[in-house]
């Protein structure tokens, strides 16, 4: 019986080690999408990696190691968003390939609108559009039911549209 437990523990440690070695770039992109700051995203990924290694014994299924790590990372990012809500925001979006002034203006406008959303709304949008995850994968990553993910994502998109419209009205009134 001890040999089975030791083999399972070794398999789990190997899966976590491989994920942490190979999955860091994807994790950084997700954290950057959520946090809108690549430097803070690096810190969040590092914190999530340390937590994942410390909690590797809680991984039940080796096949779900990526979803397990994503949940840890999302929770670290949520905590950072809550801490940041008490401070003045700093906006930085991942640079795109098109650096035309119109593109930069649209990206800034989108960044301001996203920052107006709640932390949970920002996380859902980052998972859906930043990582291009499906509703079932978002549900696994966040621990929500699929119906809850759908309704909250719909609500987040409505809030995002409203924030974009409000920003445009302010822009127009200043002209």
Description of the molecule:
The protein has 175 residues and is an all-alpha fold. The protein has one domain (2-174): Butyryl-CoA Dehydrogenase, subunit A, domain 3 (Up-down Bundle), CATH 1.20.140. Helices cover 77% and strands 0% of the residues. The chain contains 8 helices and no strands. The chain has helices at residues 2-22, 24-35, 38-54, 65-85, 101-115, 119-130, 135-142, 146-174. α2 (24-35) packs across α3 (38-54), α5 (101-115) packs across α8 and α7 (135-142) packs across α8 (146-174). The N and C termini lie far apart (75 Å). The model is unreliable at 88-93 (pLDDT under 50).
Apparent shape: elongated
Secondary structure class reads mainly alpha
As for the number of domains, it is 1
Order of helices and strands: HHHHHHHH
Map the helices and strands.
Blueprint: H1 2-22, H2 24-35, H3 38-54, H4 65-85, H5 101-115, H6 119-130, H7 135-142, H8 146-174
Helix pairs in contact: 2-3, 2-4, 2-6, 3-4, 4-7, 5-8, 6-8, 7-8
